[in-house]
Design brief:
The chain is mostly helical. The protein has two domains: about 1-45; about 50-129, no CATH class. The protein is about 75% helix and about 0% strand. The chain is elongated and about 70 Å long. The two termini are about 45 Å apart.
Length: about 130
């Protein structure tokens, strides 16, 4: 009987030690993940213009979309906004919306949200599942 109690208490002790180690390992992973994500966010947020070749064209289209219907400009005379579903239509609507103070700020928010936060998190979720 004593041997059984000793073995069962030893097994319970080892299980607790393993769960503590697993908890420490998971905590360390999340701390490192959030630290790397924060450093990447600071790095990308400090860049004035992103090094994409077509960014000026997208920002110009978003600016035209933003001020298209306002009186005093002649965008309607020279431009036609194509809202057919293309890969950049969401970027056009997002950056051209009036909830942001400027198109450039909306572009920063867009890239910070999509490329810096959601891409690593979605990759992490795919790896976990």
């Amino acid at each position: 009987m004593r041997t059984f109690l000793f073995v069962s208490s030893f097994i319970i002790f080892k299980m607790r030690e393993q769960s503590k180690a697993a908890y420490r390992s998971k905590t360390l992973f999340w701390v490192i993940f959030v630290l790397c994500l924060s450093m990447h966010t600071i790095l990308i947020a400090s860049i004035r213009l992103y090094p994409f070749l077509d960014t000026p064209n997208h920002l110009a289209m978003a600016t035209i979309y933003r001020y298209y219907g306002q009186p005093g400009n002649h965008f309607a005379d020279y431009y036609l906004i194509d809202t057919v579903l293309k890969p950049n239509v969401f970027h056009l609507f997002f950056c051209g919306s009036t909830i942001f103070p400027s198109v450039e700020f909306a572009n920063k928010v867009f890239y910070l949200r999509i490329y810096i936060i959601l891409l690593p998190l979605s990759t992490l979720l795919c790896l976990i599942s």
